[in-house]
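Can you give me the bound-state structure? Components:
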Amino acid sequence: MKLTFNNKTLVKLVFTFLILIWCIGFVIPVFIPQLSIALNLVYKNVCHQNISRTFHINNFHLLVCSRCAGIYLGALILSIVNCLLPKIELSIKYLFPASLPMLIDILFYSLKFYNYNKSIAFTTGFIFGSVGFIYIWNGFENLLAIINKREKVE
Amino acid sequence: MNKFLPALVCGFAAGVLNIVPFAKNFMCCLIVPAASVFALILYQRSTKDFGFLKTGTSVLIGLFTGMFAALFGSTLEIIIILITKTSDLTTSLEEMNKFVKDLPANPIWDEVMNLMYKISDEITLHGFSLLYTISIFFSSLIVDSIFGMIGGIIGMQILNNRLKPKN
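Here's the bound-state model for the whole set.
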């Protein structure tokens, strides 16, 4: 089956499903701890996994830090919204303001203005992740449009 | 070559930063996407073409950056394991063992734990485990490639936005 814009909703759903699997992957060791060693190999590539900076549920920690968890969950929520709405467009100039709270948080706790706070890290990551998703999706849409154009020419 | 070289340079930088704990604390999951954005900037400079970037080119450069980051990152990690004779697996195995003991016995988990202990012993004794090396390499190759492509897409939009006429 060719990925065309006629089944754009399907592509959106697949995209959301993939993000959902990624999010389940870092939460699932809380429920099935035996999987944590294997999954750790995947998530250690994308996160420092500092235990003091990760959320703990039932004495088990997530496989990514609170900031990364915020980024991925933000992307997941926006991808669900993206499935419900026909199109979300946002100028790229909003990416910097969206990343600003996160950058300020990193700067402030690094300069010891305050201690690392999981809730702040999660919230700032969530804002960045949700806005960042829009640009990733728009870029992906462009890529699909180019592929479809080529197929039509051929 | 124009696509390879910026990806190689930025992929190497990302690979090094990925194993430096201090740097990783700062950037976390943004190292590889950021490296892809820098690779696109380098690509534009090397070709001296500051026009609109194509999506395919950006994704390709992002993919190469991610692949090089995975290659260098995993190689450096393997070297560190070889020198220190310890890894994340060795440290987390003890914690895992405590938990597994409290669970009802299951032959599958026992086999998995035995395999993990075998790998851990190999690392402690020789500083090298083929299975662990392969798993590190492939997991980072897949994850970094995806994150590299995401960085390529975001980078393209940032760089193309500079060319759009302002109202």
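A couple of observations. The two ends of chain B are 37 Å apart (CA to CA). Chain B has seven helices and no strands.
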